[in-house]
TrEMBL record:
The organism of origin for this protein: Acanthochromis polyacanthus
Gene Ontology cellular component terms for the protein in this record: cytosol; extracellular space; lysosome
Any one GO molecular-function label of the UniProt entry: cytokine activity
Protein name, UniProt field: Interleukin-1 beta
Cross-referenced Gene3D superfamilies: 2.80.10.50
Compartment list: Cytoplasm, Cytosol; Lysosome; Secreted, Extracellular exosome
Amino acid sequence: MVPEISIHCLFLTELQDEIIRLDKGLELEVSRSKRTLQGVANLVLAINRMAKPPSRCGRELSEDEFCSLIMDSVIEETVVKTDRNWSTGDGRVTFQRVNSGMQFSLCDSVQKDIVQQSGDLKLQAITLKGGHYERKVNFKMARYVPLGVCAADAQTVLLSITNNIHMSCTMTDGKLELTLENCSKDELLKISDNQNMDRFLFFKRASALALYTFESVKYRDWFISTSSKDEDQLVEMCKVDTAGRLTSFKLK
Protein backbone atom coordinates (compact mmCIF):
# COMPACT_ATOMS: atom_id res chain seq x y z
CA MET A 1 0.00 0.00 0.00
CA VAL A 2 1.45 3.38 -1.01
CA PRO A 3 1.60 5.74 2.00
CA GLU A 4 -0.55 8.87 1.90
CA ILE A 5 1.50 12.04 1.61
CA SER A 6 0.13 15.45 2.46
CA ILE A 7 1.00 17.86 -0.34
CA HIS A 8 1.21 20.96 1.85
CA CYS A 9 3.97 19.42 3.97
CA LEU A 10 6.29 19.35 0.97
CA PHE A 11 6.61 23.13 1.11
CA LEU A 12 7.98 23.26 4.67
CA THR A 13 11.52 24.64 4.51
CA GLU A 14 12.70 22.58 7.50
CA LEU A 15 11.41 19.22 6.22
CA GLN A 16 13.93 16.46 6.99
CA ASP A 17 15.00 13.99 4.32
CA GLU A 18 13.01 10.77 4.57
CA ILE A 19 13.25 7.46 2.76
CA ILE A 20 9.84 5.85 2.10
CA ARG A 21 9.99 2.21 1.04
CA LEU A 22 7.28 1.76 -1.58
CA ASP A 23 8.09 -1.75 -2.72
CA LYS A 24 10.99 -4.19 -2.83
CA GLY A 25 13.85 -2.37 -4.51
CA LEU A 26 11.86 0.86 -4.93
CA GLU A 27 12.23 3.80 -2.57
CA LEU A 28 10.87 7.36 -2.56
CA GLU A 29 13.22 9.99 -1.11
CA VAL A 30 11.57 13.16 0.24
CA SER A 31 14.23 15.87 0.44
CA ARG A 32 14.28 18.90 2.71
CA SER A 33 14.74 21.12 -0.35
CA LYS A 34 11.86 23.49 -1.07
CA ARG A 35 9.58 22.07 -3.75
CA THR A 36 8.25 23.82 -6.81
CA LEU A 37 4.64 23.42 -7.89
CA GLN A 38 5.83 21.40 -10.90
CA GLY A 39 7.84 19.11 -8.63
CA VAL A 40 4.81 18.48 -6.41
CA ALA A 41 2.67 17.74 -9.47
CA ASN A 42 5.25 15.21 -10.69
CA LEU A 43 5.35 13.59 -7.26
CA VAL A 44 1.56 13.26 -7.05
CA LEU A 45 1.45 11.84 -10.59
CA ALA A 46 4.10 9.26 -9.70
CA ILE A 47 2.29 8.18 -6.52
CA ASN A 48 -1.01 7.83 -8.37
CA ARG A 49 0.70 5.60 -10.92
CA MET A 50 2.19 3.48 -8.15
CA ALA A 51 -1.24 3.03 -6.56
CA LYS A 52 -2.76 1.94 -9.87
CA PRO A 53 -0.12 0.35 -12.11
CA PRO A 54 -0.78 1.33 -15.72
CA SER A 55 -1.10 -1.01 -18.65
CA ARG A 56 0.11 -0.87 -22.21
CA CYS A 57 -1.70 -2.32 -25.19
CA GLY A 58 -4.05 -4.22 -22.89
CA ARG A 59 -1.30 -5.88 -20.82
CA GLU A 60 0.09 -5.05 -17.40
CA LEU A 61 3.56 -3.48 -17.44
CA SER A 62 6.56 -5.44 -16.23
CA GLU A 63 8.48 -4.22 -13.17
CA ASP A 64 11.25 -2.71 -15.32
CA GLU A 65 8.76 -0.93 -17.60
CA PHE A 66 6.81 0.36 -14.60
CA CYS A 67 9.94 1.69 -12.86
CA SER A 68 11.10 3.34 -16.08
CA LEU A 69 7.73 5.07 -16.46
CA ILE A 70 7.89 6.38 -12.88
CA MET A 71 11.45 7.65 -13.31
CA ASP A 72 10.50 9.46 -16.51
CA SER A 73 7.88 11.34 -14.50
CA VAL A 74 10.00 12.41 -11.56
CA ILE A 75 13.58 12.77 -12.85
CA GLU A 76 14.74 15.96 -14.50
CA GLU A 77 18.01 16.13 -16.42
CA THR A 78 20.33 18.83 -15.07
CA VAL A 79 23.78 20.08 -15.95
CA VAL A 80 26.45 20.52 -13.28
CA LYS A 81 27.73 24.09 -13.50
CA THR A 82 31.30 24.88 -12.52
CA ASP A 83 33.04 27.99 -11.27
CA ARG A 84 35.94 28.80 -13.56
CA ASN A 85 39.31 30.00 -12.43
CA TRP A 86 40.07 32.45 -15.22
CA SER A 87 43.74 32.77 -14.26
CA THR A 88 44.42 29.08 -14.86
CA GLY A 89 41.51 28.10 -17.11
CA ASP A 90 40.59 25.26 -14.76
CA GLY A 91 37.04 24.42 -13.77
CA ARG A 92 36.17 24.08 -10.09
CA VAL A 93 33.22 22.36 -8.43
CA THR A 94 32.29 22.59 -4.75
CA PHE A 95 30.01 19.96 -3.20
CA GLN A 96 27.85 20.73 -0.17
CA ARG A 97 26.65 18.02 2.24
CA VAL A 98 22.86 18.04 2.42
CA ASN A 99 22.20 15.07 4.72
CA SER A 100 23.89 12.15 6.45
CA GLY A 101 21.67 9.55 8.00
CA MET A 102 21.17 6.46 5.86
CA GLN A 103 22.87 3.37 7.35
CA PHE A 104 23.30 0.06 5.55
CA SER A 105 25.62 -2.85 4.78
CA LEU A 106 26.83 -3.81 1.31
CA CYS A 107 26.96 -7.11 -0.55
CA ASP A 108 27.98 -7.66 -4.16
CA SER A 109 25.83 -9.21 -6.87
CA VAL A 110 26.91 -12.75 -5.86
CA GLN A 111 26.03 -12.15 -2.19
CA LYS A 112 29.53 -11.61 -0.76
CA ASP A 113 29.43 -9.21 2.20
CA ILE A 114 31.84 -6.34 2.78
CA VAL A 115 33.88 -6.76 5.97
CA GLN A 116 36.87 -5.13 7.67
CA GLN A 117 39.65 -7.01 9.37
CA SER A 118 40.43 -5.60 12.82
CA GLY A 119 42.64 -2.52 12.55
CA ASP A 120 43.01 -2.83 8.78
CA LEU A 121 42.39 0.14 6.45
CA LYS A 122 41.26 -2.15 3.62
CA LEU A 123 37.90 -3.83 3.06
CA GLN A 124 37.30 -7.43 1.96
CA ALA A 125 34.43 -9.32 0.29
CA ILE A 126 33.50 -12.58 2.06
CA THR A 127 30.54 -14.96 1.95
CA LEU A 128 29.34 -14.90 5.56
CA LYS A 129 27.46 -17.84 7.02
CA GLY A 130 25.16 -18.15 10.00
CA GLY A 131 26.50 -16.70 13.24
CA HIS A 132 29.04 -14.41 11.58
CA TYR A 133 26.84 -11.66 10.17
CA GLU A 134 28.04 -9.23 12.84
CA ARG A 135 31.30 -8.98 10.85
CA LYS A 136 29.59 -6.96 8.14
CA VAL A 137 30.66 -3.32 7.89
CA ASN A 138 27.87 -0.90 8.70
CA PHE A 139 28.21 2.07 6.39
CA LYS A 140 26.76 5.53 6.83
CA MET A 141 26.05 7.47 3.66
CA ALA A 142 26.08 11.26 3.40
CA ARG A 143 24.66 12.91 0.29
CA TYR A 144 26.23 15.92 -1.46
CA VAL A 145 25.13 18.28 -4.22
CA PRO A 146 27.15 20.70 -6.36
CA LEU A 147 26.45 24.22 -5.04
CA GLY A 148 23.74 26.06 -6.95
CA VAL A 149 22.42 23.06 -8.92
CA CYS A 150 20.55 19.82 -8.39
CA ALA A 151 22.11 16.38 -8.66
CA ALA A 152 22.50 15.10 -12.22
CA ASP A 153 22.03 11.45 -13.22
CA ALA A 154 23.50 10.18 -9.94
CA GLN A 155 23.67 10.97 -6.26
CA THR A 156 27.06 12.16 -5.00
CA VAL A 157 27.80 10.39 -1.71
CA LEU A 158 30.38 9.93 1.03
CA LEU A 159 30.68 6.41 2.47
CA SER A 160 31.78 6.22 6.13
CA ILE A 161 32.22 3.44 8.66
CA THR A 162 32.61 5.84 11.64
CA ASN A 163 32.24 9.60 12.03
CA ASN A 164 35.87 10.07 11.05
CA ILE A 165 36.74 7.03 8.88
CA HIS A 166 35.67 7.23 5.24
CA MET A 167 36.29 5.44 1.96
CA SER A 168 38.64 7.30 -0.38
CA CYS A 169 40.51 6.83 -3.67
CA THR A 170 44.18 7.68 -4.09
CA MET A 171 46.57 7.22 -7.00
CA THR A 172 49.87 5.59 -5.97
CA ASP A 173 52.57 4.83 -8.55
CA GLY A 174 49.99 4.85 -11.32
CA LYS A 175 47.63 2.47 -9.49
CA LEU A 176 44.30 3.59 -8.06
CA GLU A 177 43.76 2.34 -4.51
CA LEU A 178 40.61 2.18 -2.41
CA THR A 179 41.30 2.67 1.28
CA LEU A 180 39.81 3.85 4.56
CA GLU A 181 41.02 7.30 5.54
CA ASN A 182 40.72 9.36 8.71
CA CYS A 183 39.21 12.82 8.20
CA SER A 184 37.04 14.84 10.59
CA LYS A 185 33.38 15.30 9.74
CA ASP A 186 33.69 19.09 9.88
CA GLU A 187 36.36 19.08 7.16
CA LEU A 188 33.89 17.35 4.84
CA LEU A 189 30.95 19.76 5.13
CA LYS A 190 32.06 21.25 1.81
CA ILE A 191 34.31 19.42 -0.62
CA SER A 192 36.17 21.12 -3.46
CA ASP A 193 37.75 19.20 -6.30
CA ASN A 194 40.69 21.62 -6.52
CA GLN A 195 41.76 20.70 -2.97
CA ASN A 196 41.95 16.94 -3.63
CA MET A 197 39.07 16.38 -1.18
CA ASP A 198 36.86 14.93 -3.90
CA ARG A 199 38.80 11.68 -3.40
CA PHE A 200 36.19 10.94 -0.71
CA LEU A 201 33.19 11.21 -3.05
CA PHE A 202 31.44 8.64 -5.24
CA PHE A 203 28.63 8.78 -7.78
CA LYS A 204 25.91 6.36 -6.67
CA ARG A 205 23.78 5.08 -9.55
CA ALA A 206 21.08 2.45 -9.90
CA SER A 207 22.51 -0.23 -12.21
CA ALA A 208 19.54 -2.61 -12.05
CA LEU A 209 16.55 -3.23 -9.82
CA ALA A 210 17.88 -2.90 -6.24
CA LEU A 211 21.55 -2.86 -7.39
CA TYR A 212 23.87 0.16 -7.35
CA THR A 213 27.31 1.17 -8.62
CA PHE A 214 29.77 3.57 -6.97
CA GLU A 215 32.02 5.54 -9.34
CA SER A 216 34.88 7.71 -8.09
CA VAL A 217 34.17 11.43 -8.50
CA LYS A 218 37.88 12.29 -8.75
CA TYR A 219 38.82 9.39 -11.03
CA ARG A 220 35.97 9.01 -13.50
CA ASP A 221 35.18 5.57 -14.98
CA TRP A 222 36.70 3.82 -11.94
CA PHE A 223 34.27 1.84 -9.76
CA ILE A 224 34.26 0.14 -6.36
CA SER A 225 34.46 -3.59 -7.13
CA THR A 226 34.91 -7.11 -5.76
CA SER A 227 36.26 -10.34 -7.24
CA SER A 228 33.65 -12.33 -9.14
CA LYS A 229 35.07 -15.68 -8.00
CA ASP A 230 37.68 -15.58 -5.24
CA GLU A 231 36.86 -15.29 -1.53
CA ASP A 232 38.61 -13.08 1.03
CA GLN A 233 39.81 -10.70 -1.67
CA LEU A 234 40.22 -6.95 -1.22
CA VAL A 235 37.55 -4.50 -2.33
CA GLU A 236 39.31 -2.49 -5.03
CA MET A 237 38.74 0.07 -7.77
CA CYS A 238 38.45 -1.09 -11.38
CA LYS A 239 37.27 -0.01 -14.79
CA VAL A 240 33.67 -0.97 -15.45
CA ASP A 241 34.54 -3.61 -18.06
CA THR A 242 37.42 -5.26 -16.15
CA ALA A 243 37.19 -9.05 -16.43
CA GLY A 244 36.58 -10.93 -13.19
CA ARG A 245 35.34 -7.88 -11.24
CA LEU A 246 31.85 -7.10 -9.95
CA THR A 247 30.79 -3.46 -9.73
CA SER A 248 27.14 -3.78 -8.65
CA PHE A 249 26.09 -3.85 -5.00
CA LYS A 250 22.96 -4.32 -2.95
CA LEU A 251 22.20 -2.10 0.04
CA LYS A 252 20.91 -4.11 2.99
